[in-house]
């Protein structure tokens, strides 16, 4: 009889053990007694604790406490962060997910700082002038710049025209950093209305961004103005000098 019961228990799944990963919760609560217990003399037994002695006030909850920034050493150039060998301080989640996991950075230690600082000094050429230079290039190259010119008086597009147009778009660029096409662009000419040409903007004397520019004629007389085109930057435009022309910057 007992043997049959043992066989039944052995054949059932009651004794099957499963591997379970148990991990403790990483939190800490700092508490303080609201009513401290009474003092007792040396070598005497402490007094009995009452119910009021088990009432606590919360002093600190580490789960909601702001964690300090994490310092890491970059192993490669990271756009918007820094160059190889730079020590940067970021939020823990951002540093771990965007830099440490992809292998773009290592934890800051004296050995890592010395290692990547030496490699940084041994580099002959600097690919990027700053951490935000490539981001600026990407922003400029995604821009369709409206160059507004007079419809009633003759003009020739010069770097300062592009400078003013960029300033309207929120970019401050000196005249010396703007390179126009070799072929002069003159007007007014309605055949050039809404046609595109490229100009080159040099950033920190290193990076270059090719900016798409579109000519728009404007008149001070409301009756002479061209019809308004809604969201003209979304429409296709013809090249001013023809595709593949060497006159492009």
What this model shows, in words?
- The protein is an alpha+beta fold.
- Among the domains are: 70-122, Ribosomal protein L9, N-terminal domain (Ribosomal Protein L9, domain 1); 133-234, Ribosomal Protein L9, domain 2 (Roll), CATH 3.10.430.100.
- Helix content is 20%, strand content 22%.
- It contains five helices and eleven strands.
- The chain has helices at residues 2-11, 92-100, 110-122, 133-141, 159-168, and strands at residues 29-33, 56-61, 70-74, 87-90, 105-107, 144-150, 155-156, 178-179, 186-187, 196-203, 207-218.
- Strand 10 (196-203) and strand 11 (207-218) form a beta hairpin.
- It is elongated and about 105 Å long.
Provide the gyration radius in Å. Answer: 35 Å
Shape: elongated
Spatial strand sequence of the major β-sheet: 6-11-10-8
CATH topology of the domain at 133-234: Ribosomal Protein L9, domain 2
SSE-based structural type:
alpha+beta
Number of strands: 11
- Per CATH, the architecture of the domain at 133-234 is Roll
Q: Low-confidence parts lasting 5 or more residues at pLDDT below 50?
A: 244-249
